[in-house]
Amino acid sequence: MDRLARMFDTHPEPASDAGEQALKAVRETAECSLVCTTCADACLAEAADMADCIRLCLDAADMTAVVAQMLARPGHQDRETLQRALEACSRACQACAEECERHADRMEHCGICAESCRACADACDRMTGALVA
Amino acid sequence: MDRLARMFDTHPEPASDAGEQALKAVRETAECSLVCTTCADACLAEAADMADCIRLCLDAADMTAVVAQMLARPGHQDRETLQRALEACSRACQACAEECERHADRMEHCGICAESCRACADACDRMTGALVA
Amino acid sequence: MDRLARMFDTHPEPASDAGEQALKAVRETAECSLVCTTCADACLAEAADMADCIRLCLDAADMTAVVAQMLARPGHQDRETLQRALEACSRACQACAEECERHADRMEHCGICAESCRACADACDRMTGALVA
Amino acid sequence: MDRLARMFDTHPEPASDAGEQALKAVRETAECSLVCTTCADACLAEAADMADCIRLCLDAADMTAVVAQMLARPGHQDRETLQRALEACSRACQACAEECERHADRMEHCGICAESCRACADACDRMTGALVA
Hints:
The structure is a homotetramer. The first copy, chain A, has 5 helices and no strands. By secondary structure, chain A is mostly helical. The first copy, chain A, has a single domain (about 15-130), classed as Up-down Bundle (Substrate Binding Domain Of Dnak, Chain:A, Domain 2). The longest helix of chain A has 26 residues, at about 20-45. The interface of B and C includes residues 11, 34 and 38 of B.
């Protein structure tokens, strides 16, 4: 078991029993945040005009980072804030994935970023499902 | 005109004409993020058990920071992401204000934080209104 | 007195007596973070290749944001961490200012950003001075 | 190869040849940021007064997050900013580890957090070494 899983396991007072789902979501959002940051940076190095793609990568990088942080506080309790943050994050990832997919054939980094964004949006949606259940 | 207003004014390609509203919202969210961070830190120095208040302050500090950053990119274009982020931010501020108001009579910092959170939620709601209009 | 000043004023246990200096530094870093974010976004809308400028703006935006957050915790106590963070922030702002100054005659936003970065580096250096004193 | 490694691999213009070291450092800082965030939250749920530990966890969480972001931009070029940020991050992690180690026998989460902070400080120091070489 890695360190983050052990942290979740030893938290004295988690607010919900969606810990397993939260752990998956925190991993996907945290990885997606870094991937989007790297994609924006890689896009800056491309000859083409990637301004729109870069902006969507930055939005997704920011929203995923904040959701990762919120989910990394298992004692966190305002379900409605978390739910809305997950929805904003899921949308940011979808918007970024759509744009990145347009460049995926010429720019491999955009293809990987789209893949990460899709997985992240999916993890957020599942986490939302676990909250509502 | 301060520096941020001048930056918005000289941006070559703002995505919307809600610049004035965005400027107000970016200021409220940025201030609120710092105020919530300070309130969490002040709560840590109180003798009482302020764990719930601190968590809500941290959530609000994080959500306001990310919305400030997104709004500080006037070329930003995915309206739906922004709208959802504003909703999550507004909710985080309301939840924090409600909790802080309970302690406001004994802890002045909580009173000021609640005031900042209410103003911020209001600015986010108005910004949402400007996006939808 | 604005909200943040009132927060600092009502904090029950500030770790240092450099509160006044910290308040100035938190304001400069917080404003500079937004200004750099907007400058990066404005640079994306320029026809010229602004990749280097954008990267330096993003570095400065990130470092100033983290220093603003740390300084917004007046009970914060590891002086050495804060000192090093202030040095990294000051350097990031200087690097961004140098690059932005090259474009200031053609791009007004870069001129304002350089001005903000210089003021921020200065506030960080003064804060470092206050810590060492 | 995971997504982040593939992103680094497909970046068209990395600024340094310390990519392998950077990848290790970005992983340690990103994990450490989440671990410190969870530890602060877990400490909030403890009966003991953990204020100092929580503040050091928050400082470490913030500094590691910003270094992860900077390192996730392989085209990033101001070596001196990065070096100073790595030093601040390494110091923040050491300070957090020292404090967490004091509680490790009674609070397992603090023991895991200290372990993560030590590994992260080490990765930052190695990255600094790779930059200077």
